[in-house]
Specification:
The protein is mainly alpha-helical. The protein contains 15 helices and three strands. The relative contact order is 0.16.
Length: 361
């Protein structure tokens, strides 16, 4: 319990640019969901209010205490990911959800936060020096375990996000040039075997991404409809509730994976640019927090959250524009969904916790 006398001191240290950017992005998402799927709007309001409580709670928590429980959280998430493969809920051929009372939750989303914590705890003493090969390989093994479990759900998109979290944190911790070239060479060498282990639908998504016109009514349908929606918005957009691609159900997943296309259709280039501006402010403030963190653990937490959000924004908007394969990655704070929203706000709460305590050491 935080004494009331401490609250004014905390409020003075809150990063309000970070908070404001987060709130504005939430409003963007709620507005688009209200326009394209009013039935989901009420549920998303509940998710958003619950997420704000999570954000406030995590912000008030001293992030340094999480070093003590990071290992336990890590193995706990691995257990949940394993449980998903055994008794998870099957949705559209994928097993990604666990039943929780009357609802469901997605452990792979929470694995992003836990991976950030365990890697930051492992690498916190390496900033300013160079990673040893032993520590580098240890971080790789810690990342590979959840990546493999998530991939077999199958969820290639989240596996990629987990990998980019690892990549961002080891670069922030001090990646040796030799290790970088080793990593790059290994990645290139894995392209052929990786293609062979991809599911048929995953290969089809990549082929459709390269040339969606090959199958305009099948594998290329989503990409083409998203591009039509984005282009039809032109400069100022069609207006609130007037997006034909989403309202006439031509655009699939128009309030989840392809919400950026829905937004672009109704709000046009101006609305899309404004959304990107808010994301730029959010990501920029996270880097500022990383720079002025009180310790290396806090710095790496902020770097990990930055990598998580940047990669997810880039992949989601990229697949809406047809410059990235479709992977089913939601747009942070904007797309409909509880698990994704809660995890994003939990991550931002961690960054705010680092910001609040940046001058205490």
């Amino acid at each position: 319990m935080i004494p009331i006398s401490v609250i004014p001191k905390i409020l003075k240290k809150v990063d309000y640019f970070l908070l404001l950017a987060m709130i504005l992005l939430l409003v963007f998402g709620l507005t688009v969901i209200l326009s394209t799927n009013p039935e989901a709007f009420g549920r998303q309001i509940v998710f958003a209010l619950t997420g704000l409580l999570i954000y406030i709670g995590v912000s008030l928590l001293d992030y340094r205490l999480l070093k003590l429980v990071s290992v336990g959280l890590y193995f706990g998430v691995l257990g949940l990911l394993g449980l998903v493969l055994v008794s998870g809920v099957v949705t559209r051929g994928a097993i990604r959800w666990l039943e929780l009372g009357t609802g469901q939750f997605q452990p792979s989303e929470f694995s992003k936060i836990v991976l950030i914590l365990i890697l930051a705890s492992l690498l916190k003493t390496n900033i300013g020096s160079r990673l040893s090969l032993k520590v580098f390989l240890a971080s790789l093994v810690l990342t590979a375990m959840p990546v493999i479990l998530v991939y077999f759900q199958p969820d290639l998109g989240t596996s990629i996000i987990l990998f980019t979290i690892w990549l961002g944190i080891i670069v922030g911790a001090g990646l040796k040039t030799s290790h970088f070239f080793l990593l790059a060479a290994s990645g290139l060498g894995m392209l052929v075997p990786l293609w062979s282990i991809l599911k048929d639908y995953q290969r089809q998504r990549i082929i459709s991404f390269l040339n969606p016109a090959l199958d305009p009514l099948g594998g290329g349908y989503n990409v083409l409809q998203a591009q039509i929606a984005v282009g039809s918005g032109q400069f100022l957009g069609r207006g609130f509730g007037r997006g034909t691609q989403s309202h006439l159900q031509f655009l699939p997943e128009h309030y989840t994976d392809f919400i950026f296309a829905s937004l672009s259709e109704e709000w046009g280039f101006v609305g899309s640019l404004l959304l990107l501006l808010f994301f730029a402010v959010l990501l920029g403030r996270i880097l500022v927090v990383a720079r002025y963190a009180c310790d290396d653990f806090g710095t790496l937490i902020a770097v990990g959250v930055f990598s998580f959000l940047l990669s997810q924004v880039f992949i989601n908007i990229g697949m809406n524009l047809g410059i990235m394969p479709i992977t089913g990655i939601p747009l942070p704070l904007v797309s409909y969904g509880g698990s994704s929203l809660w995890v994003t706000m939990m991550a931002l709460g961690l960054v705010q916790s680092v910001a609040i305590r940046r001058r205490k050491c």
